[in-house]
Amino acid sequence: MEKYLQELVGKTAKFKVDSLAIIQSNNSNGTDPLSTTPLLIGDIGLQTGVAIHSGNAANVRVALEGTVGLTVATEATAIITLTIERNGSSTAGTGVLIHQQVFETDFVRVFSPLSITAGDFPPAALVLAGEIRYTLFISSTSDAIILSGPVGFNGSASAGTTTS
Questions:
Q1: How far apart are CA 54 and CA 67, in angstroms?
Q2: What is the pTM of this model?
Q3: For residues 90 and 43, what is the distance between their CA atoms, to the nearest angstrom?
């Protein structure tokens, strides 16, 4: 993860601030249909206090990754949306949009798990608060899309300045 973060921002991070992973489901047995109402499937809080004490509050970088397994109940065309927000509540649209990925199914009945990857450079004021919350939501234009799992969401925060 650290190597990925370094490549993502093109800088060498001096130290890791925090890392967290959440697994909503570790199997493919889910039967919940999706809807146009975004469903919260990932929620992490990254601790940023160590950046405060090191004087690096303005140099925090966050890498976020989520994966979700889906199946299709019947042949349908649907648009599936994965959204990552910063410091919102458990309701989509209440936080700052970090990244949104849209997938069109085009009548595909079976497909690989969907993934979303994002980076964030949170403002120093948020870092100074000591924790930054990131949430992952999913929605679909068709209830034929089933949240079968597995579902995972993880994030890593690093801080420091460039060394080169």
A1: 33
A2: 0.84
A3: 8
